[in-house]
Input
Amino acid sequence: MDEKGMKIQWYPGHMTKTRRMIADQMKHMDAVCEILDARIPLSSRNPDVEELTADKPRLIVLNRTDLADPAATKRWASYFRGCGFAVLEVNAKAGQGTGKFPSAVRELLADKLAFYAEKGQAGRMIRVMILGIPNVGKSTFINKVAKRKTAKAEDRPGVTRSKQWVPVDQSLELLDTPGMLWPKFEDPAVGERLACTGAVRDEILDLEELASHLMAYLGEHYPQALLERYKTAVEPDDTGWTLLEKAGRKRGFVVRGGEVDTERMARILLDEFRGGKLGRFTLELPEDIADE
Ligand code: G4P
Output
């Protein structure tokens, strides 16, 4: 996505505390499950997680697959598998794919479980930490996996209060992210992708600029969607701004003097994109990694 000039500030203030809390709990974990937004799997990853979890068996959940480009999700899944992660493709809201979680964890830990069984400890509790940035779908995922309506806190001796232990079955339990794992971005393009998906708040953004960058990306990668939804054909010299204007004009958002109300169109575009009304899109691909 175009990186011109957008500066999104984030608040990394709590990260030191969160890092410490995650590191403290890590020794109690058998595995780590990182939940990512399938539309922006890299931008929704906190880079600290890589280092904090490097010596644990890891599973990546690509969530919100209902909103992501299905072909791109497949490519991301094979990319992460190639990096040594187990991967699940999930729509946590509808509970699609969540049922595979317990068997995926047990497969990931097969060697360890075989070792326990040899020692006569079959059925020993497996603990998995769920990690993810705010709003990525952690509670929705945990509730579906644990088949409960709300994730309820349980106190356990030996662990700090307020830790969220959630039982899944007799020998599997989950720990919700201790602390707030904010996304991290020095790169403005990462901030923009987070903003497009609604992961950062609107009031800190220039909506028209954000929408014009989104339009440029959609015009390049998904022109058919713009044609279908906004009756806007993408011409070779169109920019994000001209596409925003064209779509606004088609929608009839014209103000005095014949100008297009691009702010109104920007809001519509972002709402429809976030709500999945425009289609299913992925904003970054594994092959983009080398370019950044
Ligand atoms: P968090 O714990 O990581 O902060 O995220 P949470 O589960 O609260 O999910 C944030 C929002 O994302 C919720 O929407 C939730 O329904 C939605 N969500 C989670 N997983 C998926 C998914 O796979 N697909 C889609 N489309 N949405 C998902 P909300 O608007 O806050 O609540 P609600 O309107 O769904 O009740």
Observations:
- The radius of gyration is 21 Å.
- The chain has eleven helices and six strands.
- Residues 63-64, 66-67, 91-93, 132, 134-140 surround guanosine-5',3'-tetraphosphate (CB under 6 Å).
- Residues 152-161 have pLDDT under 50 and may be disordered.
